[in-house]
Structure formats: C-alpha cells, structure tokens
Amino acid sequence: MQTPQSDTVPSVKIVPRETLAKSRVLVVGDVMLDRYWFGDVNRISPEAPVPVVHVQRQEDRLGGAANVARNAVAIGAQAGLLCVVGHDEPGERIVGLLGESNVQAYLERDPALPTTIKLRVLSRQQQLLRVDFENTPAHEVLLAGLARFDALLPSHDVILMSDYAKGGLTHVTQMISKARAAGKAVLVDPKGDDWERYRGASVITPNRAELREVIGTWKSEEDLLARVTKLRRDLQIDALLLTRSEEGMTLFSDEGVRHAAADAREVYDVSGAGDTVIATVAAMLGAGLPLAEGVALANRAAGIVVGKLGTATVDYDELFA
Ligand SMILES: Nc1ncnc2c1ncn2[C@@H]1O[C@H](COP(=O)(O)OP(=O)(O)OP(=O)(O)O)[C@@H](O)[C@H]1O
Ligand SMILES: [Mg+2]
C-alpha cells in the first residue's frame, strides 16, 4: 500500500549469473515432506461411513526449509540446509529429493523422530483427508545441530531461518547472535507470537497474519509503520519485509518504507510464495546486492511463482527474462 511517506522499491537490475553462483546461503529450520496420494473412489467402506480410496499414484515434494533451500538453488545461488530428520522412509525421500535439487544437505538424524510429513489423500481433484506425522526433535540432536551450525558459519554468506514451529529452531536466538557476531546477515521467516527468540535478526519476513499476531491489527498505514518501528527497535531487528499476498510487499527499515506492488499476471497457486520471497532476498544479499534491490527481485520472483501450478520455484532465466 503506497502512502505519502512510502517509496517504491528500485527497478530490478540484472545480476550476472557468475555473481549469483558465488552466493552461499545456509538455510536452517524445519523440513517436511509434502506427499500426495491420488486414487479412485468407487465404494463406501463396510467398516465405517467413509470412502475407500484405491491409491494409483504418489507424488512427493520438498516442504518447509527444504523448499526454501531448493528455491535459492533454482535462482542460481548455492544453498546448504541444516535440519533434523528421522531414520525413516520419508527421511530418505527428503535426502533423495535434496540431492536431485542440488541442495547441500547437513542432516542431523534423530532415530526416535518421525520425519515431518503431510500426507494428502486426493480423488478427482478433491482432497479427502490430510494426515500429519511430526514431533519435536530430541534435545541432544538439537545441540549437535547447534555445534554443526558453528562449523558451517564461516563457509556461508547469509543465514536463513525457516521456522515452521516443529522444534528445529529451538536454539535460534543463539544461532542469530553467533551469525551476527561473525558479520553474517540473518533472515528469519517467523512463526508464532514469540518473536523475542528472533532478537537481533537482520531481516524478518512475516505475512499479514503472522505480523498481526505480534503487533495486533493496524488501523492505517501510518499506524502500521508506528507499530513496526517500535517492534524493530524493541527486538533490534534491522528490517521487516511484510508480504501482503495480492497487495505485494512492504519493506520497513531505517531507510524508510518501500512498497512493491504485486506483479503477478496470473495467479494459480500461491502456496510457497513466501518461501520463494525469502530465498530470493537471501540469495541476493549473498551476492552483495543492497536489501531494497533484493526485495525488488523477490517481488518479481513471487509474481512468477504464483502463476505456476506445482513447481514452486523460479529459475535464473525466468527471473531475469
Ligand atoms: N494472490 C496473489 N496475487 C499476486 N501476488 C501474490 C498473491 N499471493 C502472493 N503473491 C506474491 O507472493 C508474495 C508472498 O505471498 P504471501 O504474502 O501470501 O506469503 P506467505 O503467506 O508467507 O506465503 P506461503 O506461506 O503460502 O508461502 C506476496 O508478497 C506477493 O508478491
Ligand atoms: Mg509463509
């Protein structure tokens, strides 16, 4: 939303492929597998009044932090992924899909953990049921992840925290302060109402509902600016990028307020657009671009990705076409 005090983001400039290829993003957070079972329904079960699905096909996609990392690679950066998975079939599937996506996986294994999986059962384009498996990783495994984080810091330019509230980011506050002390930018895609845990982050990228949970409902753009300014000051967060679905996105920083109108031509599938946004901003910061230019490119990437069915990534050629 443009107001008298807000400016627009700069127009996008082409970033050479070689520059982007040097950008090294470390994604830390909660990974999940999005699984889809497609089948036919021809009868009602004799056991209970429910349809019986005869499964014909299974499709798996990387979700959560793994989808973020995949997006960073798709636009041409390098991405490492630090997360916890179980010792099970979905965990192996995630390993396989990360390999196909050229994401460098740094996985901590928790033998007692069911790897997070969201299973959808569909018939004739209709979702019949969703089944979730998830749990919080064990304490020792999370501590091992924290130690691994220290080792990975020097070889990455930008750190990206992808929080889906599954427990993978239990030590996020410590990770942020270690990364900032090492001079690295830290981006956070937040979850929940306790943002004290993200204290000291460089950029936080909530959507409207996520921000409302923390600062309440704003009454005008001026009111929003006042609330965001106070929040940034209280938590020592340099910048806040509010993603506003069909209203585009707004960047709040010490340099002022800059808005980018949504630039989607067609909208087919908005899920995962937030992952594309933060992955693009991180990749561009790692390539040395100023934040506002990274945001302009993230807005363009989001406009492309919402026009796609299925593949929730944008590649270099599409972004700079
Ligand atoms: N309906 C839409 N029309 C045009 N652009 C959209 C639409 N929805 C999303 N976008 C683009 O995608 C960006 C991110 O979307 P949104 O604010 O919905 O993030 P999000 O809720 O975190 O998404 P998700 O969690 O599903 O990945 C927006 O800032 C905008 O650029
Ligand atoms: Mg989101």
Automatic annotation (TrEMBL):
GO terms for molecular function: heptose 7-phosphate kinase activity; heptose-1-phosphate adenylyltransferase activity; phosphotransferase activity, alcohol group as acceptor. Keywords: Kinase, Transferase. It comes from the Bacteria. GO terms for cellular component: cytosol. Signal peptide: none annotated. Residues 24-313 form the Carbohydrate kinase PfkB domain. This is D-glycero-beta-D-manno-heptose-7-phosphate kinase. It comes from Paraburkholderia acidisoli. The lineage of its organism: Bacteria, Pseudomonadati, Pseudomonadota, Betaproteobacteria, Burkholderiales.
